[in-house]
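Case study: Class I glutamine amidotransferase-like superfamily protein.
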Amino acid sequence: MAFNNDLSVILPRVLIVSRRSVRKNKFVDFVGEYHLDLIVGYGAVPVIVPRVNGVHMLLDSFEPIHGVLLCEGEDIDPSLYEAETSGLSPEELEEIRRLHASDTAIDTEKDSIELRLAKLCLERNIPYLGICRGSQVLNVACGGTLYQDIGKELSRKLPENQRVVHMDYDNYDGHRHSVKIVENTPLQCWFKDSLDDGKMEILVNSYHHQGVKRLAQRFVPMALAPDGLIEGFYDPDAYNPEEGKFIMGLQFHPERMRRPDSEEFDYSGCPSAYQEFVKAVIAYQKKLNSSTSIPKPLKLNQEMENRRKIIVRSFSLAKNLYTAGGGMHPSKVSELQAGAEFLESNTALSVQQEKRLKQMGATVRNGTNYIEKLKINEERERLARHVMGKMPVEQLSDLMSFYHMMGQICSEVLERKLHGIVNDISD
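Here is what the predicted structure looks like once written out:
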């Protein structure tokens, strides 16, 4: 049992957001086992993120995050990209909702969770694999757009011989269409043993009525359908699995490309996306651990060390005055200045600390000013509570998210500056 517990800590963690369905008149969250089997099989631990309300505000609780796999789900809310340029009439939109009822029911909570995770991966270079909807989330997160409906926005503008059926409800798992693989991309490497001489095509499955319209600038296409739709893309500057780099989106489902009544893959390269993704996840975890496991001590130069000693002496003197009571020799007044200045840069004290400060007010310079600042802070807090008490939940969530983001930015900038101090001292 101890061995298993150790493994749960050692193995890297891949976050996967669940999809909501209805079972026995109740909502249930699920993730397809094909994804889970491949992630586990290649050496990582899948961590399922439930798409229940409020989880988008709790993503810090899922740390450490070594990889993110986003897969199937409903259509992304059109308001999150340039849907107003689609030119679809209300009648056409209603027809789309009727034809694809299970996909057009927008799940705003899943959108919020997945877009935040995608942006987190992009900010921190966390390995990301997007399958089907997950590829669309990645494109939207980077400023790209989607076709609200491929049939009405793309297919009908093409000659009959160039049109592609991207969704076949009558042959759901068996339907395939061709894609042309772009040379010198990971897909070519993965499927090279299955490519016929002189042809760069494979057959892929297809379960979608939406797709990439404008590809975000950072990405390069890896596969194209005969109608021109991008079926796979990646960021070449963020792709090196051995170094923990992997940012990719696939519109098709390689994990479900299996022969009829068999678990055998259509092509030997089908599981490669998962294999290389987990390879990147493992490398990312190692890189993360090596940078955080041994904290570098902060070295002080002589000037900083002298300043530290002055502040320590100031507090020591104040403590002795408080403990002994009585007066203070005028020659010692200047020595308390450093401690008083240090206190002014800190946050407000607790009520108990305020009482103690009042007791020390006769001996610590600027004590009265500090108490006045404390009262101002208390009044600001009271007003803030009053204003926030009238704000709706959505505004409070956005406000909390904003200040959480600002806190992270401050932490990162502070860390860089501290490292800069250490580097300057070392030099």
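For the exam, be able to explain this: Residues 9-292 form a domain with the Rossmann fold fold (CATH 3.40.50.880).
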